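Please discuss these two lines.
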Amino acid sequence: MDLSLPGHSGPVAVIGAGVVGLSNARLVQEAGFDVTVYTKALPPDTTSNVAGGQWQPAHLFDDTVVTAAWRQQYLAAAAYSWRRFQTLVGDDYGVRWLPTYQESSSAISQLLPGFPPDSRMLTHDDHPFPVDHVAYFETMYIETGRYLRQLIRDIRTAGGKIHTRDFATAADLTSLPERLVFNCTGLGARQLFGDTDLTPIRGQVAILLPQPEIQYAYAFKRSGYMFPRPDGIILGGTFENGVFDPAPQAGDITKILNAHKGLFNEYRCTPPLHSAPV
């Protein structure tokens, strides 16, 4: 918003209806501009719908290319997101706080003021996991399907439009009536804008039936991550660099399930205050 809207007048276009595109559209509306979202696919047929939904600043960028100014911009965006998501906690947007256990040799560093809350290292007696080094912190988790549906409602309630449309080339964008266009196409930018540096990373997940009694999350090297959400227990995962095919692979899903089962089979005791996914 800070880079593009100052000095602009007239309606705005957003290309893409994943979490970035829909969030972008809402910020444009809040700044006082009319917005139209153009998208090839709508939720639930977007990549964002299968995201695990943990709030934690993550980045995949080339350290040798980014500048100090870029890093400050990244941190400013993360800080805004951290503050903004705290205002969305509740059933409407599917955002809630959960204690989180993560394999680490040190406490999770304070990347932002106030994040992560209550970060500390645990002793062997403080947890039941068969993992040598465990850090504890608290963060928010987002039920992505509900969050995306609410964003669409918000956009339409505020007078925004959403059109299903596929763009074959960047030149097709010149036919739009809007003069300011936000590119939120994600992996679609590789074909649309010839961005060959953009590389997919396939992260597969297995989903168990919802278990409301599960009130914690974890991420361990031996098993992957477990995020409990109202719509199911999300078990990850894989990290497959350069894989374009989004179709789940049955063999990989079986490995994910077996890895988490193996973790719980080695629990040293019943976890205090929590239950184990089954």
Q: What stands out?
A: The first helix runs from residue 19 to 30. The radius of gyration is 20 Å. The chain is about 25% helix and 20% strand.
